[in-house]
Amino acid sequence: MQFPVYKRMPSKDHTVSMKGEDSSALLQNELLQESTKPSWRRSIPHVLVATISSFLFGYHLGVVNEPLESISSDLGFNGNTLAEGLVVSTCLGGAFVGCLLSGWVTDGIGRRRAFQLCALPMIVGASISATAKTIQGMLLGRLFVGIGMGLGPPVASLYVTEVSPSYVRGTYGSFIQIATCLGLMGALIVGIPVKNIKGWWRVCFWVSIIPAALLAFAMTFCAESPHWLFKKGKRAEAEAQFEKLLGASHVDSAILELSKSDGDGDAETLEFSELFHGRYFRVVFIGSTLFALQQLSGINAVFYFSSTVFRSAGVPSNLANVFVGVVNLSGSIIAMALMDKVGRKLLLLFSFLGMAVSMGLQVAAASTYASNPGAAYLSVGGMLLFVLTFALGAGPVPGLLLPEIFPSRMRAKAMAFCMSVHWVINFFVGLLFLRLLEQLGAQLLYSIFCTFCLMAAAFVKRNVLETKGKTLQEIEIALLQEQHR
User: What is the model's pLDDT at position 23?
Assistant: First the structure.
C-alpha cells in the first residue's frame, strides 16, 4: 500500500488547496488518520512541564499544614485562631482573584506565557513568606502565592487538553490530578523536620521556588497551543506547533478539524456576558454545576476532618495524612489508566455513587446505634473509600472534561468562571464546616453531603456528554447539534 505524501505549503496557498480538494481526497485523508495515530511521545514532554504548575498547586495547598504551629509561634500570633485561619484563607482569596483573571490572561498572551506569569507570583510570594518577620509579611506572601495558584489550574487544563492527541487526552489530563497529589505529599515530607528544627518552616517556602523557576524556564522550550494560535489568525504558526506535537503527517488533518468549527482563524473577542445567555449558556451551566457539586460533596471537609477521625481510631495524625495521601494518589493513578478506556462519564457516575456510599458509612458510624469501638474503624474505612472514589472521577474528570466541552472561542473565559465557582464554594465549605458540624451533628451533616453526591450522579447521567476518543472539534459540533434538537 502506498501512502500519500504530505506536502507542506504556505498558509495562503494551503487554504486555497483545502477548499479545492475533492471528496475522495478528504476520504483518503480521514482513512489514513484512523489507521495511523500521532505518537504520544511528541506531546508528553510538553504535558509533563505543564503539570509542574499542578505540583506547585498541591504543594502550596499543604505547605502550612504541619508548620502552622511553628509559624504562629515565631511570628507572634500563637493561639490566635483568627490569624492562623487568615494564613490559610488569604491564599484562597488570592486564588479566586488569579482564577477570575486567568481567562483574559490566557487569551491575551497565550497559554505558554500564562504559565510563566503564574510562576512569577509564586516565586515572589514564597520569598516574602520565607523571610517574613510579622504576620503581615506572611499574609502578603500567601496572597501572591494564591494569585499564582488560581491562575495555574485553568491554564494547565486548557493547555493539556489542547496539545494532547485525542486518544490519550484523558490519560494526560489525569497527570494534573497526580501532580497535585504529589505536591501535597511533597509538602508533607518537606515539613516533617519542622517540629525538631527551629525555623524549618522557612525552608518549606524556599523549596517551592525551585519547581516554580523550573516551570518558567522549561516553558520557554515548550509548544504554544495551536488552538490559541489558530484562533488568533496565526495559521502558519499553528501548523508549526502541530508538527512539533503530532508529527508532519498529521498537520493537515489537525488544521482541517480546527477549520470545521472555528472558520479561518476566528479572532473575535468573546464578551464575558455571552457566557450566561444564548448558545453558550448550557455548557457553562454544566461546567459550573459540576465544580459546585464537586465541592458540595464534602471532599475538602473530609480532608480537613481526617486527622480527628483517625485519632478516634488510635491512628496518629501524621500517619493519617500519609494514608489519605497514598489513597488519593492510588485512585488518581487508577483513573489515569481508565480515563481513555471507560470514558469520563462512567468514571464520574461511579465516583459520585461511590462517594455517596462512603458518606453512608460515615452516617452509620456517627449513628447512636453504632456507638461502639467498631464505629471508629467504620468511619476510617468510609473516609478512605470516599477519598479513593473521589480520586477515581470527581477529582480529575471536571478539570479535563470542561475544556473539552467548551468551544475554542470561549474556552479560557469559561474555565476561569467555572473554576472561580469552585473556589467560592471551597471557601464557604471550609468556613462553615466546623460550625455546621457543631450545630447539626455529624450524622445530619454527612447525610447532606451524601445527598449532594447522589444529586451529582443524577446530574452527570442527564447532562454530561461522553468525550472519550473524540477530537475537540467533534465534541463542539456534537454539542451544537444537541442544542438545536
Answer: 43
